[in-house]
Backbone:
């Protein structure tokens, strides 16, 4: 069956613009081509426009236009190629070099580009990345970022109220934070994924769930509950993105597998304060799960995730097949629920976990076993 999302939603045009040397191609290579920061030194200047069709979440294609920032190219974009470059744009990302000695000239150039974007793609979303912040002294970063952001906003015309600013560097997790927000605006069913995550978090009593795209390690959606909302490390999601990306690089180095294809089956951390694991949820995503320190809850959560995996697979962009009669996320999770509201885990004699079958059959089979073996069932609420 064809995907439920129309083709126009699965192919999104993204402009990446800014002055030559601002760092556009470097950040693109780190996020989408699995480069590390030290690798980008060998990248040359972009000539004219480099087109990249990047797959994300399965069949969502980011039609990324990396536009060279030399004056001659920009003049050509604004005149001879105006409609071609600025038409049908979903997102424009404009990169400013924080150390540029010609900031006012950069702003004028930005203003001309904004005017063209307003003419041909008035509904586009604009992001501004003030880049290379690692070159600014710590005590000056906040003030300088705010000053530059306000000047840029004043020249953003109709986009001034909705433009989003990020301070970024290729040497820390700030790059992942910015691109996570950018990608979020391109996923057509992001809110539905978040609702599914919220239901799952309540079902397994998780403190936090974070859904990562497997190739880029960017955050797709997250849910935080209870006391975890007071966690002082606000950049923990992007830090984990950076850790996962570095781990992929390490695996690629030691196994000879391309970095884009290097993945792991599962990672587990168990302590006296929390339990944590990352597992594959769908073909295109990994799920990070933060739980209270309970072995019983840990094991039950892993079984619950296995049972609802097929429902999340339906939400992958460009899914190859859909169930003929889709149910709401809550209805599906209730169907797989055990006696105390969570999916049951039956303790077989050999200790093996239930094998994966087709989604509905697996849920019905587990529910029946749970009813027949109440004294053998482990649940997350126990």
Residues:
């Amino acid at each position: 069956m064809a995907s439920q999302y129309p083709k126009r939603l699965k192919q999104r045009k993204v402009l990446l613009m800014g002055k030559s040397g601002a760092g556009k191609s470097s950040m693109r290579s780190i996020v989408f081509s699995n480069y590390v920061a030290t690798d980008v030194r060998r990248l040359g200047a972009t000539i004219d426009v480099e087109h990249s069709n990047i797959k994300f979440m399965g069949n969502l294609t980011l039609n990324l236009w990396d536009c060279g920032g030399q004056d001659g190219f920009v003049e050509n974009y604004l005149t001879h190629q105006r409609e071609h470059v600025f038409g049908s744009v979903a997102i424009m990302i404009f990169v400013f070099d924080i150390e540029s000695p010609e900031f006012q000239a950069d702003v004028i150039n930005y203003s001309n580009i904004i005017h063209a974007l307003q003419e041909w793609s008035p509904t586009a979303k604009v992001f501004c990345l003030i880049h290379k912040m690692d070159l600014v002294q710590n005590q000056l970063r906040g003030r300088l970022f705010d000053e530059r952001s306000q000047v840029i906003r004043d020249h953003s015309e109709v986009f001034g109220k909705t433009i989003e600013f990020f301070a970024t560097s290729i040497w820390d997790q700030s790059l992942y934070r910015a691109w996570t927000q950018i990608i979020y605006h391109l996923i057509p069913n992001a809110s539905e994924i978040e609702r599914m995550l919220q239901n799952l978090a309540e079902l397994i009593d998780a403190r936090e769930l974070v859904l990562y795209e497997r190739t880029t390690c960017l955050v797709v959606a997250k849910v935080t509950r209870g006391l975890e909302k007071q966690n002082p490390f606000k950049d923990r999601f992007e830090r984990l993105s950076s850790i996962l990306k570095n781990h992929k690089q390490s695996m690629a180095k030691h196994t000879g597998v391309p970095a884009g294809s290097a993945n792991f089956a599962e990672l587990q951390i168990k302590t006296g304060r929390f339990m944590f694991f990352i597992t594959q949820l769908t073909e295109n995503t990994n799920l990070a799960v933060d739980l209270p320190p309970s072995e019983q809850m840990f094991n039950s959560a892993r079984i619950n995730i296995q049972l609802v995996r097929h429902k999340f697979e339906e939400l992958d962009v460009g899914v190859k097949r859909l169930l003929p009669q889709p149910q709401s996320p809550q209805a599906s999770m209730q169907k797989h629920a055990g006696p105390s509201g969570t999916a049951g885990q039956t303790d077989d004699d050999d200790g093996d976990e239930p094998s994966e079958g087709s989604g509905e059959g697996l849920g019905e089979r587990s529910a029946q076993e749970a009813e027949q073996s109440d004294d053998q069932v482990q649940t997350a609420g126990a």
Q: What stands out?
A: The mean pLDDT is 80. The first strand starts at residue 11 and ends at 18. The domain at 190-378 is CATH 3.30.450.190 (Beta-Lactamase).
